[in-house]
Structure formats: C-alpha cells, structure tokens
Amino acid sequence: MNAFTKITASLATAVALMSGSVQAELNLAGLSAEEQGLAIAKERKARDLGWGDSTSAVTMTLRNAQGEESIREMRMKSLEIDDDGDKGLTIFDKPKDVKGTAFLNFSHIDKSDDQWLYLPALKRVKRISSRNKSGPFMGSEFAYEDLSSFEIEKYKFKFLAEETINGVDCYKVEQIPTDKNSGYTRQVAWLDKEHFRGQKVDFYDRKKSLLKTLTFTDYKLYLDKYWRPMQMDMINHQTKKSTELNTASLAFKTGLKDSDFNKATLKRAR
Amino acid sequence: MNRKLLIATALLSATGVQAADFEISGYVGFEWREHFEEGQYNTANNEQADRQLGLTAEPEMVWSLVDGEHTIVFKPYARIDSEDDERSHGDIRELSWMTYGDDWELTAGLSKVYWGVAESQHLVDIINQTDFVEAPDGEDKLGQPMVKLSLIRDWGTVDSFILPGFRERTFPGEEGRFRTALPIDIDNAQYQAGEEDAHVDYAVRWSHTIEDYDLGLSWFNGTSRDPLFKPVTNNVGVPTGLSPFYAQINQLGLDLQATLDSWLWKFEAIYRSYDDSVKNSFDQLGQLTQSDFGVEDYTAATGGAEYTFYGPFETVWDWGVLAEYQYDSREDGAIAIGQNDLFVGSRIAFNDVASSEVLAGISQDLDSAGTQSFVIEMATRLNEGLKFNVDVFLPMSDDDENLSYQFKRDDYVQVSLNYYY
Questions:
Q1: Domain-by-domain residue ranges, chain B?
Q2: What angle do the packed helices A33-46 and A2-18 form, to 10 degrees?
Q3: Residues in contact with B43: Cβ distance below 8 Å, sequence separation at least 6, in sequence order
Q4: Residue A120, domain extent
Q5: B420 inside 8 A of chain A by CB
C-alpha cells in the first residue's frame, strides 16, 4: 500500500513535470510565509525522488587566502532508500596518503546516521560517531552537513521573497536547521522557480554572522528529470578560504543494490 | 570536425580503461629513531643502538579483472635498518586473489585481517602474526596464508578461515632495541605441533551490527601467535638464550562497540586454553628452573570509552578523551603486560588541510607504581603526498619482575617522512 502510494505520487510528479510551464510555478496564494517555504521545499524534494542509485567521481580544490591549492579526489556510490535517508559509499583517491580509505554512511531521517570508516593500512573498519555534522569534510570549506542529502525534516522553512540570481528567477527561502548539532543558526537558499534547483545558499554561523556562501553552476539534466550541478563553490567569508567541488563523472541507475552497501563492501572498495 | 582531437580523445579514454585494470601505489619512507638512554644490555662486545636510521618501501600493485569481479593484490614490504640486522627485513604483506558475489566473498593467498575495537591493546586480533621488529606497539603484521570465505547475511557476517602455514614472530637482534636480556634464538623455534609451521589453523568469526551496537564473536584453533619462551642453557646449565615455543591453543573472542552520540564504548575479551601436555611440561620446566611460565588457561579483557568534543573552544577540532582498562586473569606482571593496567589518553584531529592529528597517552600498571609508559603520536601532511610523523614512546619500570622492565631504557623519539605515490 505504502509503495503503491509512493509510485502514484511520483507518477503525479512526472505528469506534472511533463505538462511543463503550466505546473512549473507553484501556487503559493493564501499561505503563510512558513507554509510557502515548506511547499517550496516539498516540491524541491518531490522533484528529486526516484533517482534510484548513482555513481560519481568528484574533485575538490581547496584554496587558502593566499591562493595555495590542495586537491582531494573521491568516488561515490549512492543508493536511494524508500522512506529513509540514502546509503552512501565514498572511496578516497587523493591525497595519496589516504588512498583506499573508504567511508560508509547510512543516513536516517528520524535518528542519527550510521557511519563506518575503513583504514586500509590496518585493514580496520571503525564505527564512528555521526555526531560531527559541523566539522570540515577533508579539511575543506564543506561541512559534513553541507554534503548530506536534502531532507524536509532537517529544517524549518520560511519563504522570504522572489529574487533574481544571475538572471534566474528564484524563490528565496530561509532554512533553520532542526538539529541542535548543526553548525548554523540559519541558511538562506535561492531556488530557481522553474526547476527548484539550488542556485545559491548563504550560511550563518552560531553567532548569526554570515559565514559561507555556496553557489551552484553548470547544471546538467540526467534521466530527463534530475538536475545536478557540475560545479559547487563554497566561499568562507571569515577565513577567505574556498573550496571548488567539481563533478568529473556522474551516472544514474547503474544497478547498485542494497547488498553493495555493507561493511564487507566497504573493506573491498577500491 | 577536428579529427585529431577525436583520435586523441579516443586514445585517452582507451588508456583510461587500461589504467583501471592495473594500478600501482604505495610509499617510500625515511625514519630516524633516537634513543635517549644507553642500552640496558650493553656488553663489552655488543652495544645496543642509540640511533637507528631506516628506509622503508611498501608498493601495492592491484590487478582488477572482469569489471572488478576478480582482484589480485601484491603488496611487498621492505625495511633497511642502519643498526639492527634483524630489523632489516622484507615481507609479502599481501599476495592474494579475491572474488565476490552478492552475499559472499572469497579470498585466497597471503593477506591481512583485523578484528577488534579497542585502542590500547588488541586482544581479539589473532589471524596475523605481529611484525614486532617494526614497532613495539605490535600493530604491524606479517602476511598470513589463508583461504577466507565470508557469507554476508541479514543476521550477520560469517568469516571462515583455513590458515595453512604459520609465520614466526620477528624479534629485534642483539644490537637492536626492545630485546630481551637473553637473546631470542629465532633460528630454533619449537612447536607443539608435529607439523611445526605447516600446521593448518582454523578460525571463524560472526559479526553483526544491531542499531548502535557492532559486535563480533570469534573462535580460533591452531598455533598461538604469541610464543612462550624456553630457556636455552649451555653445557654447564647457564642460560644463554630463549627459544620461542609455539603452542597449540583454542581461543574464544568477543568484541563489542556501542556508538552512542559522542560516546564510543568499547570492550574486547578473550579466553585462551592450552593442552594439558603443554601446561604440564611448562610446570615441570618451571620447577626445574624455579620460575613461573604462567602457562595456564586464562581470560583477558580490555574495556573503556572515548568521548569526543566536536569543535571545542570555537575551533573545528575533534577532541577526544579516552580511557581503557586492561585485565588478565594470570594477574602477574611478569607474565602479561596488560594484567591490571589503565590507559588514559587524548587525541585531537585538527581537521585542517594537512589532516594534522596528535595522540598522547599514558599506560599505568596498577600493580606497580613505578611501571608506566608514555606515548605521543603526531602526523601532518607537508605537501601533496608527503607525510610527516613524530612518535615518542617512553617505557618506564622500576620493578625488575615486570615484563616492561626489559624495555625501560628503550625510550625513543622517532621522526619519519613518507612519500606516497
């Protein structure tokens, strides 16, 4: 019954998408700012359901205030899980001293994520605490929470305004993290009205001052439905450091299964 | 249309496919270990090293066949030590073939396996022999011949091992550090089993994750990786050396970790039993030499917790504090090091671009106020591929009955540079 409802819902979304511009603009009339924000977020989430699984290769370029660069390279496998957060397996290729290190993540909507780290030199799998949401990922300007999947339950939303970002009409939405361990007091996100894709996000730190800005560029369409940015730029306004995240390759529906995500596959990941 | 570009692209992608089939990586390293005190066992014609320089290399070659369904790994290791001939050595850490299906995995060849959760000692981890000349912490291991079948099921993973062939523990030479008062006669190791190092050992481990708990139960039957030592005497009965004796054992192991928010709770325990014949023969030897070899069935355990502060003092650090207690039912510091000891430590991951981290800790023998050891481990990346490590180990003991006493002057500071490619 539940699965059927879900299929019907995604069919409805698909039909809505196919009917094009008629459904492209969300009807927000008569709603409070909070209800409008939630409606936008739900639409964003609905448009991203059903992607199944994906594999990708990603490069991160870390730059400090002096412009010195450091490179990170990793490959990721992801699996969409019905009614819960995604499963992910990340294999690190660079820096070379962490080559072969792998990270397994079962994200959850209603409880903390399950995470394991594989250390190839010791051949040891360590269960690690997922409590560290706000810490830097691989020394970059991306925090762990910036890279986790978008879930409605993670925020309280509020519609702020309609604004144009780089010539694209956007909804400007405030997102207040519900997790007390988040490093942010609030985020302000700009989503384009046509496809509900993130264009820009401002992050405010625990002292409520502007900390970072993330911009998304070079969107590509996959499976005729899913938009993914090939480049993400995170700029830290306080330290003047930045990280550029480039997607080198990305493929959907590659046939990954639940059995590709466990401690055994973590150990043999290469 | 640019044909040249097209051909170049095609060639590039073709070499790309080739590169995925074979890959080589690894490191070469330089190590400088400085000892503060003169060797405890210096004699007129033998001096223990005060400064050891080392070169190390560990390339790893990986062949991936049939879209990664089969993997062959070859990982040799070599060290050249400036002072200790026994520490200069080579090993094949890995030479194995692996294949897998949806819910199973098969490995055959020389390989390495790690079991356990604790940080201060590794009781449960038994498959691989310790490469003791590498470091006194026992974390370096020799490649072990094995056939390993893993079955991955909803109710847990079962790893079954056939271990054909045994590796003897490595020991520093007379000019090295972390040696015993009497030299170990590594060329004349003795075995309980008639097949000696060709004895086939068996092991099984079940492991599972239930919510926030990761647990493992293991059983090992075969040649103990920890040798017992028999004194070697000359023709007038004066002890001149120690002969490693590898007994047959049965060992049950349990490891458990609870991951609860910022807390990691860890517990490992083993029960090890020997055959009566071995216990009796060491009892008789003990009566003859008026010493206690402590060869009895025993239980040992390590348990403790680690708490991590995330982003303390407005930093982006992970600051962890940990404590582990070590117990051994033989209750004798002359037989087991972690018999009633407490380890307290702290580590910081700075989460910077250089992945800098530091760990500092102290182990205190609760039965011997003057027996403790300090350890500091620091690591940072100097540039892409170049890793810099500083390790400090300061063992201390004023109790000549304690096992740690023989290492009391082996304190060292070690600086190492490893280049990864």
A1: 21-420
A2: 100
A3: none
A4: 2-268
A5: yes
Taking a C-beta distance cutoff of 8 angstroms, is the pair B179, B173 a contact?
yes
- Determine the straight-line distance between the first and last CA of chain B, rounded to whole angstroms: 38
Residue B190 CA: distances (Å) to CA of A132, A256, B95, B226, B285: 51, 51, 27, 13, 15
In this structure, the number of other CB atoms found within 10 A of the CB of residue A233 comes to 18
Residue closest to A60 by CA, chosen among A87, A94, A89:
A94
Read off the pLDDT of residues A60-116 as tens digits, 9 standing for 90 and up.
999 999 999 999 999 999 999 988 889 999 999 999 999 999 999 999 888 889 999
Q: What is d(CA B363, CA A68) in angstroms, rounded to the nearest whole number?
A: 41
B114, B355, B418: residue with CB nearest A122: B114
CATH number for the domain that contains residue A16: 2.50.20.10
Interface of A with B (CB under 8 A): 62, 64, 70-71, 94-100, 112, 114, 122-129, 131-132, 134-136, 138-139, 181, 183, 257, 259, 262-264, 268, 270
Query: To the nearest 5 percent, what fractions of chain A are helix, strand and coil?
Result: 20, 45, 35
Here the tokens at position A157 are 């939303």
Average pLDDT on A243-253 reads 97
| pLDDT for the residue B15 | 44
The string of DSSP codes covering B43-102 is BTTB---SEEEEEEEEEEEEEEETTTTEEEEEEEEEEEESS-TTTSEEEEEEEEEEEE-S
Per the structure, how many domains does chain A have?
Answer: 1
Cross-chain CB nearest to B310 (options A71, A124, A131): A131
Under 8 Å CB-to-CB from A99, ≥6 apart: which residues?
A92, A93, A120, B25, B420
| Cβ within 8 Å, pair B139-A135 | no
Supply the CATH classification number for the domain B21-420: 2.40.160.10
Task: Report the C-alpha gap between A70 and A1 in whole angstroms.
Answer: 50
pLDDT grade, residue A133 (50/70/90)? confident
Pairing of strands A186-192, A198-204: antiparallel
Across chain A, mean pLDDT equals 89
**3-state secondary structure at position B280:** helix
The Cα–Cα gap between B199 and B221 comes to 11
CB atoms A264 and B150 under 8 Å: yes
Note whether A247 and A58 are within 8 A (CB): yes
Burial class (CB in 10 A: 0-12, 13-18, 19+), B102: exposed
Cα-based torsion angle of the residue sequence A199, A205, A208, A213 in order, rounded to the nearest 10 degrees: -20
A72, A206, A270, best to mutate vs chain B, most B CBs in 10 Å: A270
Please answer whether residues B81 and B52 qualify as being in contact, where contact means their C-beta atoms are separated by less than 8 angstroms.
yes
Buried/exposed code over A185-199 (b: 16+ C-beta within 10 A; e: otherwise): ebbbbbbbeebbbbb
Residue type, B115: W
CA distance from start to end of chain A: 39
* Token pair for B272: 């090890």
How many whole angstroms from its chain centre is CA B295?
A: 23
E strands, A96-240, are 102-106, 114-119, 124-128, 155-165, 168-177, 186-192, 198-204, 210-222, 226-236
Neighbouring C-alpha atoms within 13 Å toward the C-beta of A16: 15
Residue type, B87: R
What pairs with residue A177 in β-bridges?
A155
The tens digit of pLDDT for each residue in A54-70 reads 999 999 999 999 999 99
Predicted ipTM of the assembly: 0.91
What percent of chain B is predicted at pLDDT more than 70?
Answer: 95
